[in-house]
Amino acid sequence: MVNKFQLYKNYVVRYLENLLSLLMIKKENLDKTSAWPFVEAKKMLLERKSIIEKKGKITLQTGYGPSGLPHIGTFGEVARTSMVVNALKHLTDLPTEIITFSDDMDGLRKVPDNVPNKDLLEENLHKPLTKVPDPFEKFDSFGEHNNQMLKNFLDNFNFKYSFKSSTKLYRSGFFNSSLQEILKNYDGIMNIILPTLGKERQKTYCPFLPICPDTGHVLEIPMKEINKEKSIIIFDNNGKDLEISILDGNCKLQWKVDWAMRWYALDVDFEMYGKDLIESAILSSKIIKLIGKTNPSGFAYELFLDEKGEKISKSKGNGITIDQWLKYASPESLSLYMYQNPKRAKKLYKEIVSKTVDEYLELLDKAKNQDDFKLLMNPVWHVHDSKVPEEKMIMSFSMLLNLVETSNADSKELLWKFVKKYKKDIEEKDYPIFNDLVGYAIKYFNDVIKKQKKYKIPNNDEKIALKALVSTLDNCNDEMSPEDIQTLIYSTGKENGYSKNLRDWFKLIYEVVFGDQNGPRMGFFISFFGVQETKDLIQKRVK
C-alpha cells in the first residue's frame, strides 16, 4: 500500500530543493541562457502551455526497441531528456515524468549479430519480442531480457523514469480506447500514410497488425472488412479470412501509427528522436491531430557513428558499448558526451573516451569561478542536475595515463602510492572523482592505449636534441615550478633545430618517450613525475 505521508514528504522535499536552486539562479539568467536543454524546455512550455496547465503535469517520453541489446544511443535519449527535465525544474513548479517506453510487442524481424543461440531466435522470427525465447536463458523472453538490461543500466545512473511495456499496455486494455479512435479514423489515417508508400505496398498496407492465433506471428496482411462498432477487423490471411478484435493485445499498430497512438494515450508533451525518424515524426504528428490531440514538442538529434562512420546499430553491436565506456570512465563523462552538440553527428568509439574525460575535468574546473549565466552554459551544470561538485583537480586524465605508463603501475593502490610520492598532502577520500580516475586509467591504458603505442626510434640529429634536453634537466630540480621547467624545454628545442616549429619538438618528445604524437604539458609532467625520473625515462628511450 502506498504511504501517502511519504509521498507528500517526498514532494515537499523536491519542491524545497527546486526552490532553493531557483533562489540561487537569477531569473534573467534563466531567460537569457541558450543552453539547449533550456531552449527545448522553454519551447515546450510555450507550444503546449494550455495543455500542460490543464493536465497539471509534464510528460516526456523516450522510446526503445528491444530487438537488440541496449546501446549508448538508447542511454543518450534518457540522459538528454533528463537534462530537459532539470531545466524544467528551474522554469516551472509543475511535476514532471519521463516515460521510457519499450516497443516489446514488435515482431522480431532479424537475428542480431551479438547474441548467443542464434538458431533459437531464427526459429521464432516474426513473433512479438515478449514471445521470443531468451537466447541468454535468463528471462522468460528476449524482450524481457533486453528490457531488464535497460532498466538495470538506467537505475545505475539514478535516472528517474517510469518504464512502460508495449505488451503490457496493449494486453491490459490500457490502449483500447485509443485503438478505437484509430479505427474510427481509419480512412483519414490511410490518406496520410498511403501517399508515402510504393504502389505495391499501398495494396496491402493496414495500420493494424494482427497476432496470428495459430503461429503467434505479427502479421502484415491486407484488411478485407472493418466492423467499427465491435472493434473487429477481417484480414486476408493468404486467402483465408482471419477475423480478430483490435483490443486487448490481439493486434498491434504499425510503427508510425503506433507512435501517434502512444502520444495520444500517454499525453506526451515532449519526445526527442534520431534524425532518421524525422519523416516518421511528421506523419505521426498528422495522425494525432486527426484523432483529436496535439503532437508533442519534438527534438531531432543527429546519429551516433562508429569509427568507420557507420550508424551504430543494436543488431550489429558496433561502436562502444555502455559497459565498455563505464569500464574506462565515469557515468558523468558519458553524460557530458551526450550533452555536447546533440544536433551534430558524432563518432563513438573507445578512443573518444579519454578526450571526453579531460573535457569533463576542464569544465569542472571552470565551473568553480563562473557566475550564474556562464554556469548555465557550462555542460557540467546539466550533467550534474545543477549540483556541480567542487573537487579540486589533481591532473588531467591524459596525464594520468602517461603516469600509468611511466610508473608501470598495474593496480589502483600502486598508482596512488606513486601519486602520493609527489603529492604528499592528498587522501583518497578527499578526491572521489580522481580516485575513480586512477582505477579507470589503468584499465584504459592496458586495453586501449598500450595496443596503439608506436615508439619512435630517433635519428642521430634527434638523439642529439633529446640528449641536450637531458643536460638541461641536469640544471633543474623538483622544487622548480612547471612554468620554469617548460621555459627551459622551449629554449632547448630552439637551440637544437626547432626554433621555427616548436610543435615538432614536442611531437618528437611525445613519440619517443610516450609512443604517441600527443602528450602532457611537459613542465607539469616533469614537476610531478620527478626530474631524475624523467631523465632516466628519456635516456632509456635514447640509446
Question: How are the SSEs placed, and which strands pair?
Answer:
Layout: H1 4-24, H2 27-32, H3 36-47, H4 49-55, E1 58-64, H5 72-89, E2 96-102, H6 118-122, H7 142-156, E3 162-165, H8 166-172, H9 176-184, H10 186-193, H11 199-204, E4 208-210, E5 223-227, E6 232-237, E7 240-245, E8 251-253, H12 255-266, E9 270-274, H13 278-290, E10 297-301, E11 304-305, H14 322-328, H15 331-339, E12 346-347, H16 352-367, H17 372-377, H18 379-383, H19 397-407, H20 412-422, H21 432-452, H22 460-474, H23 482-498, H24 502-514, H25 522-529, H26 531-541
Parallel strand pairs: 1-2, 1-9, 2-3, 9-10, 11-12
Antiparallel strand pairs: 4-8, 5-6, 6-7
Structure description:
The protein is α/β, with parallel strands linked by helices and 543 residues long. It has 26 helices and twelve strands. The strands form four sheets. The protein has a five-stranded parallel β-sheet with strand order 3-2-1-9-10. Strands 5-6-7 form a three-stranded antiparallel β-sheet, with no helix packed on it. Helix 9 (176-184) packs across helix 12. The longest helix has 21 residues, at 4-24. The chain is elongated, with a radius of gyration of 29 Å. The N and C termini lie far apart (75 Å). The mean pLDDT is 91.
Strand composition percent: 5-15%
Q: What summary fits the major beta sheet? A: 5 strands, parallel
CATH superfamily of the largest domain: HUPs
CATH architecture label name of the largest domain: 3-Layer(aba) Sandwich
Number of helix segments?
A: 26
Mean pLDDT: 91
